[in-house]
Amino acid sequence: MPPRKLPPDAFEFYFGLGPNRSYRAVADHFGSSKTAVANLATREDWRTRISERERKAQEKVEEKAVEALADLNGRHLKMLRTIQAKALEGLKNLSINTGMDCVRALDMAIKGERLVLGEPTERTANDVEAIIKKEHERWLVRQPSEEAQSAG
User: Fold this and answer.
1) C-alpha distance from residue 43 to each of 17, 20, 76 (Å)
2) DSSP symbols for 67-99
3) Residue 6's closest CA among 31, 23, 35, 24?
4) How distant, in Å, are the alpha carbons of 19, 29, 121, 140, 142 from that of 145?
5) Which tens digits make up the pLDDT trace of 2-36?
6) What is the DSSP string of 109-152?
7) DSSP letter at 6?
């Protein structure tokens, strides 16, 4: 059996070339023919291996992004709750005039907390429902023949 021109780490070299990888680059690097590289790539299923590694890498990136977002939301909630506590403490100790700053801080913190938790910051759900009902009644008009039939 003739010595193998392509070493076992040929795939690793190919993978390491990144998006611009090519069989020609592998052949040139190892002093082999492009055909030999293509044959080895087919036998070892390089395309599937590349796809699998890239999929796993993407999953890790997405997991890290989710963790980072969860950490960010946790920090923001902690800050907002601290603002709420300070605002409530201020309301207890201040007169009504200076207490308005505390009310504004409390309002801002509550809205921020609801936003971080994915809740509406204002009561828009009922407004949307009312608008839909009003538009439905406005556009749902009986035809003249229907009115005559229901009257007779």
Assistant:
1) 20, 21, 52
2) HHHHHHHHHHHHHHHHHHHHHHHHHHHS-HHHH
3) 31
4) 68, 84, 47, 15, 8
5) 435 899 999 999 999 999 999 999 999 999 999 99
6) HHHHHHHHTT--SS--HHHHHHHHHHHHHHH----HHHHHHHH-
7) S
CA-to-CA distance for 98 and 104, rounded, in angstroms? 11
Whether the full predicted model's pTM is greater than 0.85, yes or no, is no
Alpha-carbon distance of 44 to 73, in angstroms, equals 44
What is the CB neighbour count within 10 angstroms for residue 115? 14
Distance of alpha carbon 8 from alpha carbon 85, whole angstroms: 63
First to last CA, the chain: 100
Can you read off the two tokens belonging to residue 87? 């605002």
